[in-house]
Structures are given as C-alpha cells and as structure tokens.
Amino acid sequence: MILVVDLCFKPQSLSKYEFVDPITAILRRAGSEYEVVHSTEITPDLIYSSDGIILCGTALKDDIYARRIDLFSWIRDLEKPILGICAGMQVVAAVFGGEIVPQPKIGLEKIMIVKETDLLGPPRQIEGYHLHNFGVTLPQGFDLVAGRPGEVEAFKHAERPLYGIIFHPEVRNRWIVERFDALLLESTTTP
Amino acid sequence: MLLGVLFSGGKDSVYACRRAMETDTVSCLITVVSENPDSYMFHTPNVGWAELIAEAVGIPQLTWPTLGEEGSELADLSDAMAAAIDRYGIEGVVTGAIESVYQAARVQRICRDLDLWCYNPLWQIDQLEYLRLLVSEGFEVIITGVFAYPFDGSWIGARIDGPLIEKLEALRDRYAINPSGEGGEIETFVLDGPIFRKRIEILRAEKTYGNYRGRFSIEQARLVEK
C-alpha cells in the first residue's frame, strides 16, 4: 500500500482535488493500492504498514506545511521509499537540515537532469510544470539530481530511496509517479 | 474562505463552483465578457447568458468587459478579480481549468500578484470520468459550440448524456480529441444541476454550422421552477 500524504492547509480542503487526486488517479490507473491521509492525521501504524510514501504539493499561497515540519520527523529514520513533490520536497529538505528559501516559479520550464537515478533516468533535458513560491537548499547527504545548486529541481538521498522534486509530475510527467510506483513494487518483491 | 469563481456558464466553471460550494463560501461569480470570439482565455459562446445561471444558483455575478486581445485580457481579468476583492471580499479564486497550463499559469500569476488563493478543483481530472460524473450528479449540459474536425452539425445543441459520452470516447480514441473539449473542440452551457434552485428553459436559439465550426446561440431563455 502506498501512503499518499495530503499536505494542504486542512483536511478535505478544496486544494485536495488539485494536488492529491491527480496523484491517486495515476496510482489507480496503475492498479496500485493506496491510502490518503492528511499530514495532521498520520499515525505510526499507517506509516509502518505502507510500502512507500508520497508527500503531495499544495496551493501556491499555502505554506502551512512549513510551519508543521515537526509533524514529519518520522521521515528521518524511515527506510522506506519516499517521494516528496513540491511542498513534500521542501518538507524532506527541512527534516534533513536543508532550508526552505523564497524561489517563486509558475509554469512550464526546462529542467536539466544532471545525475542518473532509478527515478528520473539518465541526464537529459525535460520540461516540467512549476507552481511554487519556495525552493530548497540541498541538505547534507543528498545528491543533486536535476537543476543546479541554487535552484534544486530534484534531489535524492545518497544512500536511501528518498526523492524530492520541486515541479509537479502530475502535469505532463506522470511517468515519474508511475516509475516511483514501479520502484516500490520492485522493492517489495525483491528478496 | 470567501471565494470568487471564474464563471462562463460552461460545464467546467459550473462544476468547479459546485465543488467550491461544498468546502467554502462562493461569494461571487466573476464573468469576463470577451469581444473576441477566438479568445484563448475566455469561453465566449452564450457567456451573456451566464447571468441567468448566476440567478438560478443564487450567487451574485460580477461581469467585466474585455476586448479579448492577448496582451490586455489578462490585465482585464486582474482588474475583475481586484473588483471582486473590493466588492465581495473574496480571498481566493476558483477556476474550471482541467489541462490548460496556458490558462492555469496565467491565473496563478494574477492570484499571486493580488495575494489571492487559487483553486483548480478539476485539475488533471480524467475527462471521461468527469463527464460521467456530471451526468450522474444531475447536471443538464448542452453543446453550444463545436470548433474542430470531426464534429458535424448534429452535435450543435445536443445534450451530454451516456450515449453522447460514448461517442466522445470513440472520437478521442480515433482522433485524439479532448472528450470534455479542453482543447477548445467543444463549448457547453449548463441548464440545470444540483446547485440550481431553478432550471433554465431555452425558448429560442439559432444554430449555425459550416466546415466543422458551429454555434448554438441562445436568443431567448428563462428560469422555471424545478
């Protein structure tokens, strides 16, 4: 089961349709089991019964998640695959000592993948939809996967299956969520 | 939260309004009336009749004119949203955008500049599932414009129902059209639905069609009890 975490400012907000439902639709089409939970309602049982976790994005004006980083301290020690999208990436960065910094960007932009990973594949240029007021600094122990040091588009923990992407894969890059889903399947079926 | 819905009277803005009404308070419907029938930003067929829907759902409407020219229509939209802040105290704007990054990004930028929340509750929705949802929830939607091959004259004024959705699905598979018209292939108008206190009855309309472009122009309509 994939745990999909809603980071919007409150449970069942109007933003959920925009930032959570498109992710679950991708998982549903892939035939994967998932469960949605709001960030304020996560329980240890849910975390430990999941095979992997997706932390979703939020509305541009919604920065409540950045004031609730303590809710996500469990990320630090969890060995399971985690994908943080936009706000979710910012949360991952903050938990590992990175900074959330003003870096507004809206719309389709070119993205340079600079390091090969199992999630984003080999270095190349892609185009992605951005919708954020904040970016991150690269936390210690993470590799820059896309973008550049002052403008991190994607990162991965050097030793763990812990990924962050600042753009929104549900728009024109659904393959990223599908690949994360496939990686989870591999990790749960590989002895 | 007090919200303003960007409102054309087409199915997407009406359904976005329904979702917004379930979670928040819709304090006004914002209708930008474009003089340019080929506007990239604003739905144009029958937009003048959106006023009747506003009355049917019982929400005040703010109408705002634009010449519909690419440079100025965004400034006009921004002015309309600013007026909605002044008159109705809105804190956020709701759109019916589904796939159009072009439209969504532009509205997001205006919202950021006006310090408004921006909501797109239909964003990336599966278009066929969405059409079935509209029908199952009791929305009565008619096609008021076709603007692409292979739509013929029979689509003009047709009601969206199960068999019509099957036809749209077949056209999607064969011609790669967007079944809900997100690419501008079709335009719609909503006559009734669960948020309507009264339904709209069309008394007179004119159909025009030629070369895969056609319109269903409402000339006379009224509200009737449900």
UniProtKB/TrEMBL annotation, chain A:
Keywords: Hydrolase. One of its GO terms (molecular function) is hydrolase activity. SUPFAM superfamilies: Class I glutamine amidotransferase-like. InterPro entries: Class_I_gatase-like, GATASE. Signal peptide: none annotated. Residues 22-173 form the Glutamine amidotransferase domain. This is Gamma-glutamyl-gamma-aminobutyrate hydrolase family protein. It comes from Candidatus Methanocrinis natronophilus. The lineage of its organism: Archaea, Methanobacteriati, Methanobacteriota, Stenosarchaea group, Methanomicrobia.
Automatic annotation (TrEMBL), chain B:
The keyword Acetylation does not apply. GO terms for molecular function: diphthine-ammonia ligase activity. Its EC number is 6.3.1.14. Residues 5-222 form the Diphthamide synthase domain. This is Diphthine--ammonia ligase. CDD domains: AANH_PF0828-like. It comes from Candidatus Methanocrinis natronophilus. Keywords: Ligase. Gene3D superfamilies: HUPs, putative n-type atp pyrophosphatase, domain 2. InterPro entries: Diphthami_syn_dom (IPR002761), DPH6/MJ0570 (IPR030662), MJ0570_ATP-bd (IPR022427), Rossmann-like_a/b/a_fold (IPR014729). It comes from the Archaea.
